Amino acid sequence: MVSLKLQKRLAASVLKCGRGKVWLDPNEINEISMANSRQNVRKLVKDGFIIRKPTKIHSRSRARRMKEAKRKGRHSGYGKRRGTREARLPTKILWMRRMRVLRSAL
Q1: Residues in CB range of 81: below 8 A, 6 or more apart
Q2: Where are the strands (E) in the chain, listed by range?
Q3: How confident is the model over 51-85, as pLDDT tens digits?
Q4: How far is CA 32 from CA 11, 17, 28, 78, 79, in A?
Q5: Of which family is this protein a member (predicted)?
Q6: Which of 42, 50, 71, 79 has the highest Cβ tally under 10 A?
Q7: Average pLDDT, the chain
Q8: Is 43 within 8 Å of 68 (Cβ atoms)?
Q9: What is the pLDDT averaged over residues 21-42?
Q10: Distance (Å, whole) CA 39 – CA 34
Q11: Is 75 among the domain residues?
């Protein structure tokens, strides 16, 4: 099989994407291997022998599901806690909240 490294690099440059996004038609390897300039690569892109692959979608459904569970209070046991109690909710803030409530009550 012919090495199409140059063609792939040129195609990536022409299509303004990475080399991994470039698809070279396996049935037209001979035609593609003859292309050694950007102009030739542009022609192959126009003919459909070289295609830019579509971007893959990174689903956030699991993240949303996890966030919903955390909102309900799941996944927050002792094993999941990294910071100290003070770091997670400072006593100063608790004190300030308590004082504000008392002062607003007066």
Answers
A1: 88
A2: 22-24, 50-52
A3: 999 999 999 999 999 999 999 999 999 999 999 99
A4: 11, 18, 6, 60, 56
A5: Belongs to the eukaryotic ribosomal protein eL19 family.
A6: 50
A7: 96
A8: no
A9: 96
A10: 12
A11: no
Mean pLDDT in residue range 10-27 = 97
**Is there a domain that residue 47 lies in?**
yes
| Distance (Å, whole) CA 4 – CA 36 | 10
Residue 90 is given by DSSP the state -
Quote the pTM value: 0.65
Amino acid sitting at position 35 = A
**Domain count for the chain:** 1
In a domain, 96, yes or no: no
* 98, part of any domain: no
Nearest-angstrom CA–CA distance, 36 and 49: 15
Question: How far is 61 from 50, CA to CA, in rounded Å?
Answer: 33
- Angle made by CA atoms 45, 51, 52, in degrees to the nearest 5: 120
Q: Which domain holds residue 17?
A: 5-52
CATH of the domain at 38: 1.10.1650.10
